[in-house]
Amino acid sequence: MSDLREAAVKVRENAHAPYSNFKVGAALRTASGAVFSGCNVENVAFPQGTCAEAGAIAAMVAAGEREIAEVYVVAGSDMPVTPCGGCRQKLAEFSGDLVSVTMATVAGKEQKMTMGDLLPGAFGAAHMQG
Ligand SMILES: O=c1ccn([C@H]2C[C@H](O)[C@@H](CO)O2)c(=O)[nH]1
Ligand SMILES: [Zn+2]
């Protein structure tokens, strides 16, 4: 098992998902080689819940890192989980278009896409010039 998959599968066990019963784990590697992980944290006030990817990003930024090199997301579904629209934008803040995102199931099915595939034409700093 890759180290990223191992981290994502492990952190997924800590997910707080009593409302959807859909536990998600995310792990990312930064340019320095460090690995950060996060799980979804739901709330009884449903919109206050946060995704696994957001948790991993928060851990990365809290540790002083900002450059994502690779992402791995895992859930217990039959189909590999894909990051929601909001998480695509959150990941794009710290990832180039070529960053690989592996979407996976606990059973081991994997699908890979790049950030450019997941969020084509992403809104970025260049759009705010002028
Ligand atoms: O990539 C994804 C997709 C969904 N979820 C969470 C949000 C919510 O807690 C649950 C159901 O949508 O799964 C994630 O954490 N990451
Ligand atoms: Zn999300």
From TrEMBL:
Keyword annotations of the record: Hydrolase, Metal-binding, Zinc
NCBIfam families according to UniProt: cyt_deam_tetra, PRK05578.1
UniProt keyword annotation of Nucleus present: no
Species whose genome carries this gene: Sulfitobacter indolifex HEL-45
Domain CMP/dCMP-type deaminase: 1-126
Cited function: This enzyme scavenges exogenous and endogenous cytidine and 2'-deoxycytidine for UMP synthesis.
InterPro entries, alphabetized: APOBEC/CMP_deaminase_Zn-bd, CMP_dCMP_dom, Cyt/Deoxycyt_deaminase, Cyt_deam_tetra, Cytidine_deaminase-like
EC number of the protein: 3.5.4.5
Cited PANTHER family: CYTIDINE DEAMINASE (PTHR11644)
Name assigned to this protein: Cytidine deaminase
Reactions catalysed: cytidine + H2O + H(+) = uridine + NH4(+); 2'-deoxycytidine + H2O + H(+) = 2'-deoxyuridine + NH4(+)
UniProt cross-references to CDD domains, sorted A to Z: cytidine_deaminase
Cofactor(s) essential for the protein: Zn(2+)
Entry's family note: Belongs to the cytidine and deoxycytidylate deaminase family.
